[in-house]
Design a protein that fits this description.
- One of its GO terms (molecular function) is D-amino-acid oxidase activity.
- Its cofactor is FAD.
- Keywords: FAD, Flavoprotein, Oxidoreductase.
- The chain is built from 11 helices and 13 strands.
- The chain has a 7-stranded mixed sheet with strand order 4-3-8-9-10-7-11. Strands 5-2-1-6-13-12 form a 6-stranded mixed sheet, with helices on both faces.
- The chain has a single domain (46-399), classed as 3-Layer(aba) Sandwich (Rossmann fold), CATH 3.40.50.
- It has helices spanning 3-42, 56-67, 90-93, 111-132, 135-138, 186-199, 213-223, 237-240, 319-331, 379-399, 401-406; strands at residues 48-52, 71-76, 140-149, 175-184, 203-206, 228-231, 246-257, 269-273, 286-294, 298-307, 345-354, 359-362, 369-373.
- Helix 2 (56-67) packs parallel to helix 6, helix 2 packs parallel to helix 10 (379-399) and helix 4 crosses helix 10 (379-399).
- The protein binds flavin-adenine dinucleotide (FAD).
- Flavin-adenine dinucleotide binds next to helix 2, strand 2, helix 3, strand 7 and strand 10.
Length: 408
Amino acid sequence: MPRSRKKVNCERLCFSVKRIKVYMTWNAKLKFEAKELVSDNKAQKAPRVLIIGGGVVGMTSALQLLNKGYKVTVLAKEYASPVSSGKRITSEIAGALWEWPPALCGRHTNEKSLERAKVWGMDGYAKFMELAMNSKETGAFLRRSIFYFKDKGSAMMPNSLKKLGSLNTDTGVVDAYQHMAPMVDTVTYMQWLYKQCREKGCHFVHDEIHGLLRDQAEDLKKKYKAQLIFNCSGLNAKELAGDEDVYPLRGVILKVRNDGSLMPKLNHSMCISIIKEFDESDKEGQSFVFILPRGDDKLWLGGMVQPHQWDRDLTLDYPPIRRMFEKVKEFYPPLRNYGDDDVEEVLVGLRPARHGNVRLEWDHVCPSLLHNYGHGGLGVTFSWGCAIEASAMVDRVFKRPQIYLSKL
Ligand SMILES: Cc1cc2nc3c(=O)[nH]c(=O)nc-3n(C[C@H](O)[C@H](O)[C@H](O)COP(=O)(O)OP(=O)(O)OC[C@H]3O[C@@H](n4cnc5c(N)ncnc54)[C@H](O)[C@@H]3O)c2cc1C
């Protein structure tokens, strides 16, 4: 064997041995912790999980864990505000419509990821249906929603969902389906999540973490008396997980009234999906259409997808927003009665996108750290599905350590 190849093989071997050593040390440590926890459990002491992030992903994960009897601390630099003013986190700006993946802007790079997304989507559908029984308190409700497609293959739905018969082909739409879709009023819903968590004993901390989470995991666990950490930091996972695949997909929503004064009141949602693949170097991005009734008397109009754009300080004068407004009016002509003065607010948000899609897995280096981020334009849709899967991963660690450990 040539010398250089020998050297490479030797390095690989050393690397593997090093990894095995790390796993063995960790296995031993976790086995010890697990034993402690089992006896703790007997003494009615539930394990504690520290969640970084107070958006829809972090708060739903927190509630799911609390419902299962875990103790939870949520740490975030910003939380959703009970009043719809001030600087909002992404989870408040969401159109918050349940969408069947790949949906409007849920990009999926492979079939496996799409299949996983569908499971999360269906878990979310079931949960939001349940929450919609008590809309006033939860902010979740069901609304007839029509999804239009410009390419036939995209309208993939479970057979139970009804296909539309008539289509307006002038707009380039070739297919569509409609179904009762869950939606949430994000201001009410985020407060409901917060209240539920608080009532179940969640501890909330206002703080900001800097640097890689895996480097400070031990200190954080010690400080907050937690055994595991969830990283639900959305777009900031770029820094906290050192994940270069995370990037923003800027989106815009125009808030107008829906009180019947400028056009007949609209009670159903309409969306045109155009996104299959988009060009990431294109700063202008793509605009698609969504028209979402919100609350009793508002409409949220969108949308836009601009990759790698961080600036949230935009107004109606920004040409792509103006073009988006025109496009929405062209698609639904009764909206032509709305002028610039009728736009009550321009909401700009950064969807936490990730090449390779959502990251829901244990950290490869720090095994007590679980990542749950990169939900792009489907964070509300996936929030419950991901929380359920994440909590099952935690159950495996705490309830059946032998099985979990043997899989490493
Ligand atoms: C215009 C627009 C329309 C959308 N429409 C829909 C839709 O119709 N349906 C749908 O399902 N989704 C939609 N989305 C996507 C959805 O909003 C996101 O996927 C979702 O909000 C992501 O939630 P998150 O909890 O991961 O992130 P965030 O809401 O961004 O929350 C991240 C949390 O982490 C905290 N954090 C971050 N960094 C740190 C740090 N260093 N230290 C401490 N705390 C930190 C933040 O303070 C915050 O509390 C839309 C998004 C936009 C912008």
